[in-house]
Amino acid sequence: MRYRIIVSYAELALKGRNRSQFVKRLRQNIRRKLKSLDMNWEVISIHDRIFVEVAEKDAQLANKAVEEIARIPGIAWLSFVHWFSEKQYRFLQTEPDMQPIHDVIKTMAQETYQPGKTFALNIKRSDKNFAISSQDLARQLALTIYENSEWQNVDLKNADQFFYVNISSRGISVHTNKIRGTGGLPVSTTGRILTLLSGGFDSPVAAWLMANRGCNVDFVHFSASHHTLDDVENYKITRIVKKLSEITGRSRLYIVPYTHFDMALLEHNLAYDLILFRRFMARVSERIMQTINAQALVTGDNLGQVASQTLENINSMNQAITAPILRPLLTYNKEQIIELSKNLDLFDVCCEPYKDCCALISKNPRTKSKADLMEKLEVNHLDDYEELIVETLAETTEVAYRYGQLLYKNDGVNDAES
């Protein structure tokens, strides 16, 4: 007997002629995730499943791998299985020896017993050369459970605990309840986006939603202070990106100080300073997007949540650049966003004290604005806008992670191949 991890993918099965490319990318993402955990296990694709061949007979290690793989976008469900190869056990002969299967079922039943709960067996026989019918095998294994464990109550449709046995021409797999994945599409199948990242709950969750739709995700953060290469890894925003990269794979963070913009508006008491700042962030971000070949800018905006996120102010920001601005959280309520943050293990770091740049720019922002008025204010009060962008970008710090591991950190903006 060996251990395997069976992965069932979600929407990939509907991709027609492009399906093989999506499956190939998912396999690659699983392989890279395992490698980051020092697990150089074989990942293969057979029919509509992906199989991870567990090298070590260590159930605890394999279960850890299952938990980590389940976080990868593009997976519907997965399970840690006991695998019995047909070449070794010869289950397709006239009178197969099923004792190894009974032994595993017995152990599983003893380990999973829950007082007052129900169980059921799910038998699938894809190879009809197997001599025992699904119904007969289910009865035999149910008897093993009754006689060797405390399980007594059966519910064939809504059991609390399922025991799965899948029989194919290659062998038999045995496992218990499946673990749900996040669904979606594999990262790196639908393009690259740049996310405006703040220190709150919203933008990290927005980035995850885009990654779960197959996007490569990079980040830009506007900081009130400069960060040296020595201290940047301890910065709250950097730690958020590090945590997210455990799911998104390779992600870069561009930390941009907005001191030049702040100084430019310091001598002006403008009621629309926050809207002007958001337009400035969009323009600087668009320059970075052009360098890294990103196709859209993503924000954590939530309609009506704060003054800057009214439809009028959202539209003023949209018209500052030509690149599309996506807002995946636009209709979410705060409770939904926080719950997602908890599921992503981001809640604690996002709760750490941090003063958002928008709060620093303006304490009483206007709730309504028009793009043409914003353009007039920029012309009248921000003398050399292009120089402002260039000076800001010159002081950018870049940090890159892959599956939670630091790749590099430097000053400046590198291209998409770095």
Give the SSE map.
Layout (H helix, E strand, L loop, with lengths): L1 E8 L9 H18 L5 E5 L2 E5 L5 H11 L5 E11 H4 L9 H14 L5 E8 L8 H15 L4 E2 L6 E7 L3 E5 L3 E5 L8 E5 L5 H10 L4 E8 L12 H13 L1 E8 L1 H8 L6 H20 L3 E3 L12 H8 L6 E2 L7 H10 L3 H5 L5 H5 L9 H11 L3 H10 L2 E6 L2 E7 L7
Parallel strand pairs: 5-6, 5-7, 10-11, 10-13, 11-12, 13-14
Antiparallel strand pairs: 1-3, 1-4, 2-3, 4-8, 4-9, 7-8, 12-15, 15-16
Helix pairs in contact: 4-5, 6-7, 9-10
Key terms for this structure?
7-stranded mixed β-sheet, 2 domains, alpha/beta, 15 helices, 418 residues, VC0802-like, 23% strand, 39% helix, single chain, Rossmann fold, 16 strands, elongated
Please give the count of helices: 15
For the record, the CATH architecture of the largest domain stands as 3-Layer(aba) Sandwich
Structural class: alpha/beta
**How much beta, percentage-wise?**
15-25%
Query: What is the CA-based Rg, rounded?
Result: 27 Å
Any overview of this molecule?
By secondary structure, this protein is of the alpha/beta class. The chain folds into 2 domains: 2-183, VC0802-like, CATH 3.30.2130; 192-411, 3-Layer(aba) Sandwich (Rossmann fold). The chain contains 15 helices and 16 strands. The chain has helices at residues 19-36, 59-69, 86-89, 99-112, 134-148, 202-211, 236-248, 259-266, 273-292, 311-318, 334-343, 347-351, 357-361, 371-381, 385-394, and strands at 2-9, 42-46, 49-53, 75-85, 118-125, 153-154, 161-167, 171-175, 179-183, 192-196, 216-223, 250-257, 296-298, 325-326, 397-402, 405-411. Strands 1, 2, 3, 4, 5, 6, 7, 8 and 9 form a 9-stranded mixed sheet that branches. Helix 10 (311-318) links the parallel strand 13 and strand 14. Helix 4 packs across helix 5 (134-148) and helix 9 (273-292) crosses helix 10. It starts with a strand and ends in a 7-residue tail after the last strand.
